[in-house]
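Entry: Cbb3-type cytochrome c oxidase subunit
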Amino acid sequence: MADHKDVDQITGVETTGHSWDGIKELNNPLPRWWLWTFYATIVFALVYTILYPAWPLVNSATSGLLGWSSRGELAEETAAANAARAGQLEQIASLSVEEINADPDLRTVAIAGGRAAFKVNCVQCHGSGAEGWPGYPNLNDDAWIWGGSLEAIHTTLDHGIRYASDDDTRISEMPAFGRDGILDRAQIDAVAAYVLSLSGNAGDEAAAEQGQVVFAENCAACHGETGEGVKEIGAPALNDAIWLYGGTKADIVRQVSGPRHGVMPAWGQRLGETTVKELTVYVHSLGGGE
């Protein structure tokens, strides 16, 4: 016995036998273009899974007949980029930072490389814009404890500051005038008042006058008679209102009593001479280089 077919009387098209609220679903065939597109995607998927990595396994995945991988492609592109820069990097390695900075093309390459190295190694302490934090110097201004010339910056980066494993590291130590009993509390308060006055901060004039004597006897040998600093020994200027550990009287009293001393790695040991030169040119280009 033949199956009964329900045909829509208006269109003459066979229905699927389903209806909703009296509306019957017509059994129209799919468009040819849609079917061929669907079949093409199936073929494409099969070819793709054969040629490229596709199916996950326990510890890896199918590698595909072409042996392609995103990591391999990245390695090839990196190698090509390094090959293109090889000549310039060799020049940077062989020239002084002054010679690199004087060559417009090499300077551009060095700044680009230094910026990348800075983002990886330096932003954690100096900030993404090299603006610094309390205890970490701002590299955009022209206040340099050890000097802001290309040579001075290179030496600082190469050997670090108070970095124990480098014999040529920068070292400067300020005595703990309070903790070691060199000055009493009244003398420390007075010298703090005088140090504030050096940068134009009005305060207790009588205390500042007393502090001037204390400063001349204990501090001027390193910081200079007028607090201008001595870069050769890493003694910061005190007359520019730029403070590494804070510029309030309480901050100054704390630093004079028990000074804090920062540490920076010797980047030459970690990054190599070429990258240190690139970093030098980049930091010098930030605007505060001498």
